[in-house]
Design goal:
The protein is built from four helices and eight strands, in the order H-H-E-E-E-E-E-E-H-E-E-H. The chain has a six-stranded antiparallel β-sheet with strand order 1-2-5-6-8-7. The longest helix has 19 residues, at 121-139. With 141 residues, the protein is an alpha+beta fold. Helix 2 (24-41) crosses helix 4 (121-139) and helix 3 (92-98) runs antiparallel to helix 4. It has a single domain, classed as Aspartate Aminotransferase, domain 1 (Alpha-Beta Complex), CATH 3.90.1150.
């Protein structure tokens, strides 16, 4: 089994945002997401791999393979073309919430937004709360 490459690191989150977020808008949105996600999760931001900012942690075991590892409960990355939000578990509630989230694109494991003002922050908060509840029910903690 291949080892998971994306792991929590001790890199500085603020240094990462300053060097990686390629526009002033992405930096501003990243700092706002730091506040929102920290408040919702109760966890301080940590770097995961070279480009993901995560909050909290859970240990997962794949339903489809023997893969397992640690992953942040929620997180984001201010990538070049869009901000990637790692807040979606595909629950029925979240699928309904997507209808009122705003302007976004859906990836395999994340939601892509151009800027934070494109989405409803209260809907994002509800999605994060649902993700955390789902993860606690499935994996404990």
């Amino acid at each position: 089994m291949a080892e998971i490459k994306t792991k929590q690191t001790n890199e500085n989150v603020h240094d990462f945002i300053e060097s990686f977020a390629n526009t002033e808008q992405k930096r501003k949105d990243s700092y706002e997401l730091l506040k929102i996600m920290q408040k919702v999760t109760g966890h301080k931001p940590k770097m995961w791999g070279p480009s993901i900012i995560g909050f909290g942690m859970y240990h997962y075991k794949s339903d489809r393979s023997s893969q397992e590892g640690d992953w942040p409960m929620v997180g984001f990355s201010p990538r070049k073309t869009a901000i990637s939000l790692y807040v979606f578990m595909g629950t029925k509630k979240q699928i309904e919430l997507l209808k009122s989230l705003g302007t976004y694109k859906m990836g395999k494991a994340c939601i892509y937004i151009k800027k934070l003002s494109d989405i409803d922050e209260q809907v994002l908060i509800k999605m994060m709360e649902d993700t955390i509840l789902f993860l606690k029910e499935k994996y404990g903690k």
